[in-house]
Design goal:
single chain, 11 helices, DER1, Rhomboid-like_sf, 264 residues, Rhomboid-like fold, 52% helix, mainly alpha
Length: 264
């Protein structure tokens, strides 16, 4: 194996657990679908297939981890890894073991309800990515990000991405992708804005069982560190993000052709 391959694998295995699981699942599922070994219609979301007997419940997960084809396969994996690991390791929101898992579960549920049940979307990968980027942008307000050839405030990054999707994929694609912003903002409102400025209670708490599963109370967790086996936080780029555009034209009609741009 080449030195570059070793470095990639070392970086992958040093990633925090939720990110590593998401990216590994994305790689396996997307490789099987885009190689033709698995029919894509078996993994995307369809409401009638969920509310039937027996329900095809795997679609609730598989519809969040299907990448684009071609070069988008690499881009989607890389930028999902970048933003997800950046949040899981460095975000001040996720200070306890399992907090990031709770965040992912909440935003994915909100995306499924708003995008799948309300808007009839079939693939939620771009929405989940946009949720991560929205939260990343809120955590890094005041910094700069690269969007295509422009440098913009990082907090404008999600909106620039939606504009690009609107231009390249049309209003429906942009509206479906925007469910990621809705989900991430709803999480921000319920866990930070409402409790801080309105004096309300934060009802989105990580269950004790989840905390224990992710190692609460063990010596591996000190504040928010995941132990020495994981990459130090400063290795995850936070200062800037490098932009890209990707197209995913497919016969399923679940995603727009213009989707998102990425991190470092």
């Amino acid at each position: 194996m080449s030195g570059g391959g070793v470095d990639i694998m070392d970086r992958f295995w040093s990633a925090p657990p939720v990110t590593r699981t998401i990216v590994a699942a994305m790689f396996v599922e997307s490789a099987l679908v885009h190689s033709g070994l698995v029919n894509g219609m078996r993994v995307i979301y369809f409401t009638p297939f969920i509310f039937k007997f027996p329900p095809e419940l795997w679609r609730l997960l598989s519809s969040f981890i299907l990448t684009g084809g071609g070069f988008n396969f690499v881009f989607d994996l890389y930028f999902m890894f970048t933003y997800s690991s950046g949040l899981e390791l460095n975000s001040p929101r996720f200070t306890q073991p399992g907090d990031f898992f709770t965040y992912v579960f909440f935003v994915a549920t909100a995306i499924w309800i708003s995008g799948g049940l309300v808007l009839g979307a079939h693939i939620f990968t771009s929405s989940l990515m946009l949720a991560f980027i929205y939260t990343f942008a809120q955590d890094n307000r005041g910094k700069k990000a690269h969007f295509v050839i422009l440098q913009i405030p990082v907090e404008l990054l999600p909106w620039a991405m939606l504009t690009l999707t609107l231009i390249m994929g049309g209003p429906q694609a942009a509206l479906q992708q925007a469910t990621g912003v809705f989900a991430a903002h709803l999480y921000d409102f319920l866990t930070r804005l409402y409790p801080t400025f309105q004096g309300g209670r934060n009802y989105i708490q990580t269950p004790a069982a989840i905390k224990r599963y992710f190692g609460a109370g063990t010596s591996a967790y000190n504040h928010k560190a995941y132990g020495t086996s994981f990459r130090p936080a400063q290795n995850v780029p936070q200062q800037q993000s490098r932009g890209w555009t990707s197209g995913f034209s497919n016969s399923w009609g679940g995603r727009g052709s213009g989707r998102r741009l990425g991190g470092d």
